[in-house]
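Narrative of activities, Objective 1.

The group set out to show that a structural description can be obtained from nothing but a protein's sequence at a throughput compatible with the screening campaign. Below is one input-output pair from the validation batch, recorded exactly as produced.
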Amino acid sequence: MSAEVWDHQELSWWLAEMYHGTASGDPYRAGAALDRLRRLFDSPVAAAWFAEQCLGVRTTG
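Output recorded for this entry:
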């Protein structure tokens, strides 16, 4: 598979864990999911990474 396909797979997994990890019943997964979401709002670097992954284009220099 190409690197682009792997990137999409990784983003899909990451989003699924962030959206559904809190309902998993596993305290670790729930905490990790909340931390991922918190990081998107607190870190400009994480927000830029997320935007780049969703848009498929680089948003920074």
